[in-house]
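Reopening: Pseudaminic acid synthase still failing for me.
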Amino acid sequence: MSSAPIRLTSDVSVSSEHPPLVIAEVSGNHNGDLGRALAIVDAAAEAGAPLVKFQTYTADTITIDSDRPEFLVGSDHALWGARRLYDLYREAHTPWSWHEQLFARAREHGMVPFSSPFDATAVDLLESLGSDIYKIASLEIGDLALLRTVARTGKPVVLSNGAATLEETALAIETIRAEGNEQIVLLHCSSSYPASPAESNLRAIPTLRDAFDVQIGLSDHTPGIGVPVAAVALGATVIEKHVTLARADGGVDSGFSLEPDELASLVRETRAGWEALGQATPRITSGEQQSRALRRSLYVVSDVQAGDTVTAEVVRSIRPAGGLEPRELSRVIGRRFTADAAAGTPLSWDLL
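Support: Ran it again with your exact input. Result attached.
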C-alpha cells in the first residue's frame, strides 16, 4: 500500500515516488555557540540534506527548576544519568534569538528549515519566521493541546512515536486530523539515546503506514547509517538523524549524532536504497539484456557434414546465446544434420 504524497513546500514532496528526504537534526549539538550552530547548517547543506531541524524551547517552557527526584534523569541513563532536567534543557536549548539567523542561513543554501515547538509560544515564534513544517517530538505526542495548535497552522506535521503505544499514536493522529489537517508524516522512533539497532523494530514501518494511511519515516538514534538504509527498504520516505561537526567535541547529543561525512553517506546510501527498490514483480532489467546475450545455448563445436549424427561430442551447451536452449539437448541427440556446419555454428532446428 502506498499513502498519498504530501507536499511539504512548493519544491519538496514526500512519497514513495521520490528519494527519501533526509532531515539533519541540530538539536543541542551547537554546544551553546551560535557560530557552531550556523556551521552545522552549512555542513548539513554541503552533505546534501534538504531539510534541517531545530528545537524551540527554553528550560522554563519545557519543565521547572526542581530538585525533586521526578525531575532527575535516571542514574543509569547512558548519556544524561542523574542530571537535573532543568539543567539539561538549559544547556541543550537553542536560544530563540538565534532562530531567525539559523532559518535564514538554511534558506540561503536552498534548505527547508523547521523546528519542534514545545509549547504555543514556540509555535508563535516559528509562525513569525514562516516555518513551512512542524515537528512533534516523541515525548510530546500526548500533549493534545500542542498538537491542536500545530495542526491549526495548516502546515504539514512530522510526528515521532518514540515511547508511545499504538493507541497513543492513533489518538495523536486523530487529534491532528480533527483540525482538518491531513498532512501527516509519522516517524517510527526508538526513544533511546543512543539506541541499539535491536530496538529499532523496523518491521513496524509498513504496519504503521498502512494502519494510519500516512507517509512513514524513521527518526533514528542508532550509531551509523545501517538502520536508516534498512528502513528505506521497508518503505520509509523520510529519515531524521542528529548531526554534529565532530563527536569528539562533546555535547548533550554528540554520542548518537552523525558527522558531516557520515551525513553525506546517509543521503547517498538512502537514495541508492530507494533506487534499488524497483517493482514487486521480478523482471529482466535493461541492464541485464547484455548479460542475456552471454547465456548458454547449443552450439556445433566440431565441423560436421550433412548426414552426421548429433552427439554430445559435436553439440554442447556453451556460452554465448544464439543457439537452441540447453534444455533441448536431449531432444537433438541422435538426430542427423541436414547440412554442413562449421564449429562455432549456433544449433537451430533448420540444421536437423
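The two ends are 52 Å apart (CA to CA). If you still see a failure, please send the error message rather than a screenshot.
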